Amino acid sequence: MSENINIFPVIPLRGLTILPGTTVHFDVSRKSSITAAEEAMLNDKQLFVVAQKDPVEEAPGFDGIYKVGTIVTVKQLNKLPDNIVRVMVEAVAKGEIQSFYEDDGCFKGQIALIPDEENTLSETEEEAFVRELKDAVVQFDTTTHELSASSIRGLLAMEQLEDLMRQILLRIKVPYKTKQEFLEDAGIFARFTTVLSFLIKENEIGEIRAGIVNKVKERLDKSQKEHILREQIQVIREELGDDYLAEADELENKIKELDADKEVKEKLLKELSRFKSYAGNAVEGNVIRTYIETMLELPWNKETEENPDLKNAEDILNRDHYELTKVKERVLEFLAVRQLTMAEKVSPIICLVGPPGTGKTSIAHSIAEALNKKYVRICLGGVDDESEIRGHRKTYVGAMPGRIVKGLKQAGTANPLILFDEIDKMGRGLHGDPASALLEVLDSEQNAKFRDNYVELPIDLSKVLFIATANDAAAIPEPLLDRMEIIEVEGYTENEKFHIAKEHLIKKQFAKNGIQKSWLSITDEGINSIIRHYTREAGVRQLDREIARICRKAASEIVKNKKKRLKVTSKNVEKYLGRKIYDIEPANEKNDIGIVRGLAWTAVGGTTLQIEVNTMPGKGELKLTGQLGDVMKESAQIALSYVRSIAGDYNVKKEFFTKNDIHIHVPEGAVPKDGPSAGITIATALLSAVAARKVDCKTAMTGEINLRGKVMPIGGLKEKLLAAKNAGIRTVLIPKKNESMLGEISKEITDGMEIVLVEDMREVLDRALV
């Protein structure tokens, strides 16, 4: 290969020609160009840059670039946002590309060095050329006022023709095609002709432009300066045929076609005007362009037609969810009220509260389908930044709208259904309180003028149907809870889980795992065995996972062993799921002293809770174990005080409590326990222990106690009764003040059990003690 021919990485430039002897920087975003710059930086820093013939072309070939370019030395690479790299180079020499190919992710080419040409002008000729150029520069500045005073002085002080021509091309806005012509010119006279021709043409254009301005000013008064500028630009473009504002024109047309209020369009046109003024600033221009494009993508006045048919909504809810009768009834009432209040734009906001896996999220999805609304889910779990709701101001680096505006953009309509999932699990961090930001969003009186920091314009959220979900209503801040209507989604009974598995989950997992109905069957006993021994939850999420495990095991056998007649029963379910994980703790078989079965509520459903009390000689101390919370410890203290007040009625001597220590223990010490509803259970166990009276092993109880022995109401009754039934309890004592809740509990749970309503602790003792 010739000494004057070398292989360099090649970067095709859009609308830019670099002249030898200059130091410039430019931005690249194409992956091939970034790779070329990085390869040059890692090797000898030599790079060949050449202008594209068509700046719009994304991947120009050999015919799409000019053949004469510049060999440059890479000085610096800087990474900018949006995958843009700024390259600073020092132009070394002129070169001609002989071949052009792609290698290792970038363009490379064989470059022939074009040596500097000798100046053939005499001293007198060069002086004449220099003076002619200086006169043209002075006239150019007089017409356009584009050059600063220091630039004029610098140019007029130059004596060398080559230096003067290069500086003119650098200090004056010259089209890249003119620079390319200058770069390709052979001979100093040809280059002089190119520069002088450009100046003469610009001077003529400047004179025409001045005439245009005068004509426009004659037609328009001083108050229309902005309109003058637009007219001026339009006339200039007509004269020059220039299309450098094509992108701005495209945005302007989109703004005019946007279905939005006048205020929105005025804001966007104002931002577009700023965008035009930042034409030479890529960073600022990108910020404004991103803002305008984001605003154009929002569905300002675009809505979907809502389906008002409540029968259709009822059919969809029944199709997608088994039982949940009360919840469905409440949802349909909510939809009916919403239909009647649509004219007032006051839509109630509901919050579905219940244990995990009970179908809260899928209920919201069904409502969206029933109403023919777009569905958007926003998960708030772990969100601790107010900007996640309200967005960031667009002046910040990487600014973006909040999640609600993103949701509207995703839906493409101004009246979607937005689900705030896990609203009880928001945090509060250093960047504000997201729950406080939601106060405005979930207030139907205020959300018609919601302001996102990024959008900077009021957004009407009154058309949006908001639904929230939570596992624990107590974890939701009070002001936020006050803005929502709570719908309790309770846990499923064993029978409900059976039907859900049989009618929904098994079909879903068969389809998901490619299993045909004839290949695998799960018997009713097998389903019940999965529910009892492999899941402990209020919902059906774990049940769904266990059925999926069976399907995967079956799929493996079908593919490996070509078996297509598999059957899962209660006897062989361990083959698919391994040993049993859970076993229902049955009621004790015999009556005992100091042992009472209580009932407790957990986030995954109800459970039985055994309270054990033992007495021993001591100094009257009370010892509590089993990882009890503060509230439960206080219940134990109250129960002890009450038992001491009535102990004489059960033949307990007064000195017993000063000569004996009492130890209260709740098994499963690794599990935290808290709440007041074990009060009567602890009191019964205490009296049983100190009076040496046995407790009926088939009786369970739940209720809070006060110092006077009154039984106070509790929560989670359905889950507690379900746990008692599964444990084989025959008699359950509950507070009389919970009597109204019994009517909402299905007969499936209460059948076979005696539910005893109690008001006073003595009633409890009469029923529980043998």
* Low-confidence runs: 240-244
- The total beta strand count reads 26
**Helicity, in percent?**
40-55%
> What is the mean pLDDT?
85
Strand order of the largest sheet: 19-20-18-17-22-25-26
Shape: elongated
Number of helices: 28
Beta-strand content bin: 15-25%
Give the CA-CA distance, first to last residue: 109 Å
Main pleated-sheet profile: 7 strands, mixed
| Alpha-beta classification | alpha/beta
Calculate Rg over CA atoms: 41 Å
Textual characterization of the structure:
This protein is α/β, with parallel strands linked by helices and 770 residues long. Helix content is 43%, strand content 19%. The chain is built from 28 helices and 26 strands. The strands form seven sheets. The protein has a seven-stranded mixed β-sheet. The protein has a five-stranded mixed barrel with strand order 1-3-4-5-6. Strands 8-9-12-7-13 form a five-stranded parallel β-sheet, sandwiched between helices. The relative contact order is 0.05.
